[in-house]
Amino acid sequence: MIFFKKKGAGSRENSAGSQQAKEEKFDAGLKRSRNRFREGLLSFVGKEIKIDREFLDEIEAFLYQSDFGSRVTDSLLQKIEERSRKSPVTHYEQIQVIIRDTFRERFAGNDAKIPVENHHPFVLLVVGVNGSGKTTTLGKLAYTFAQEGKKSLIIAGDTYRAAAVEQLETWAQRAGASFIKSPDAKNPSGIIYDGIQKGLHDQSDLILIDTAGRLHNKAHLMEELRKIIRVIQKLIPDAPHENLLVLDGTVGQNGLIQAREFGKILPISGLVVTKLDGTAKGGVLAAIHEEMGVPVKFVGLGEKIDDLLPFDADLYVDSLFGTRN
Ligand SMILES: Nc1nc2c(ncn2[C@@H]2O[C@H](COP(=O)(O)OP(=O)(O)OP(=O)(O)O)[C@@H](O)[C@H]2O)c(=O)[nH]1
Ligand SMILES: [Mg+2]
Fold this sequence. Notes:
This protein is an alpha/beta fold. Helix content is about 55%, strand content about 10%. The protein has 13 helices and eight strands. It has helices at about 1-15, 20-30, 30-40, 55-65, 70-85, 90-105, 135-145, 160-175, 190-200, 220-235, 255-265, 285-290, 315-320; strands at about 120-125, 150-155, 180, 205-210, 240-250, 270-275, 295-300, 310. Strands 3-2-4-1-5-6-7-8 form an eight-stranded mixed beta sheet, sandwiched between helices. α11 (about 255-265) links the parallel β5 (about 240-250) and β6. Residues about 1-15 have low confidence and may be disordered. Bound molecules: guanosine-5'-triphosphate (GTP) and magnesium ion (MG). Guanosine-5'-triphosphate (GTP) binds near residues 131, 158, 275 and 302.
């Protein structure tokens, strides 16, 4: 069993790690969003265009439909107008270059790296509302770290649903990670305390903590998160080292409201935008990034274990707009 897992993980490392494999994953995951652009902007491809109100309105409509939000949309339109004033923009392909440049600029400071080398063990917490993809993301993350030769311990901090614990245990097995769950349920802080002690004792490279998304009410959920942080810090005062907020990409910009709520409880260090494969509104990632000012660290592009990828702005933009050569 273990031998099989290692063999599987090793052989996938080579293919999934290559640039081409990453491009293919982003392309496949953003296919629905790209098709929306294709349908709308296809009429311009290879043709002469004129930057007038009508053209800009059309671009604007597509950006809104794809959920880029007003700030990103406005900045893009502004760039198109600016460039066209400097030198004539006569072909749609020039627009594609402007789009790409604008996004590169806007994501320039987006550091997707998780600095796992800085702490040992490195403690990572996932938070987010119910169903956003926390448990799945954690399982995929453990797999990603295993590919890099890192030893993870997963703590089942969502003790409220037996099914959630089982789901996570299955992910842990698939990722080849250690796993700890509460024997008597209902006490996330207790199991997190035990888990961190285990991680320290086992010299785990990473301790990955899942949390519940649904409690009786929001106040209870937030109070529990505060308690979880206090418990972690009893054993490792500067932890958690990464607080990832997991947002469902299909929910669109409503995710921003959630993001702000979580931000009041703990400093969000990075975002994971999941289920981008299930939406034609892939622009939402850019809108969220713009509003939150927090790096997007990972994107969920499917349900398989290797469908979580570190966010890469170039790959994202090219897959979204179909601008890769
Ligand atoms: N297509 C697709 N599905 C995803 C992705 N990430 C998660 N899912 C699915 O979304 C559903 C919910 O995922 P979970 O990981 O259970 O979400 P959660 O945040 O842990 O949910 P709670 O524990 O109920 O709060 C599952 O069916 C996952 O398979 C993704 O990137 N793409
Ligand atoms: Mg869960």
